[in-house]
Design brief:
By secondary structure, this protein is of the alpha+beta class. Helix content is 30%, strand content 26%. It has a seven-stranded antiparallel beta sheet, with helices on both faces. A hairpin with a 5-residue loop joins β3 and β4. The N terminus is likely disordered.
């Protein structure tokens, strides 16, 4: 049962990753297009500048920003639900709907990015998700990052959010020193959110 569930999660992760056709470098123009398509926005922050995407075998992402101190890097993953195609070959069950996949995808992404299973996660209340991100669901997980995804940073916080019929979106906060990164994370936690008008 556990093996089949892991395979199912791995399959879901593959669907999530392939939902956006990735090229060697994803331009800011494409990122902005994905944000618009998903009803999302990314607010500007002083002392943060765009940095090139680092190709890796773990997970593709669409945009990255780094604090001028180097203490924190943000990586953004945007998956418009309209682009997700689910291949599901179970004659006994209907294919899962994209609006129902977000908790499993978040768990799968966390396991995929972490160096081990020693992760802590927390699902926000519906009120918190709406107030902070204009989302219908949101969750946060903390873990040590797989060095294949980032060789510069050791720790990560993954924030995931979902809005029905629009998108799943993730902000990954990468850092080394928790004490230095904590205030920066606090002020940038809501840097990506759904537009209020998209409700």
């Amino acid at each position: 049962m556990k093996t089949s569930r892991c395979l199912f999660l791995t399959g879901l992760l593959a669907v999530c990753i392939s939902a956006v056709a990735a090229t060697e470098t994803v331009s800011r123009q494409l990122f902005d297009q994905l944000l618009a398509e998903s009803g999302l926005r990314v607010d500007s922050r002083q002392a943060f500048t765009d940095v090139p995407i680092q190709q890796n075998p773990i997970l593709s992402y669409e945009h990255a920003m780094r604090h001028e101190s180097g203490a924190l890097e943000l990586r953004f993953i945007v998956r418009p639900l309209g682009r997700i195609e689910i291949e599901y070959n179970d004659p006994h069950n209907a294919a899962p709907e994209p609006n129902h996949l977000f908790p499993l995808l978040f768990e799968s992404l966390t396991q995929h990015l972490a160096t081990n299973n020693d992760t802590s996660s927390n699902t926000l209340s519906e009120v918190e998700a709406k107030d902070k991100f204009n989302a219908q669901w949101a969750a946060v997980a903390a873990f040590d990052i797989d060095p294949q995804f980032s060789s510069e940073y050791k720790s990560a916080i993954l924030l995931g959010m979902h809005r029905n019929d629009q998108a799943d979106a993730y902000t990954l906060f990468l850092y080394n020193d928790p004490e230095t990164a904590k205030p920066l994370i606090s002020t940038t936690l809501g840097i990506m959110s759904f537009n209020p008008a998209s409700q």
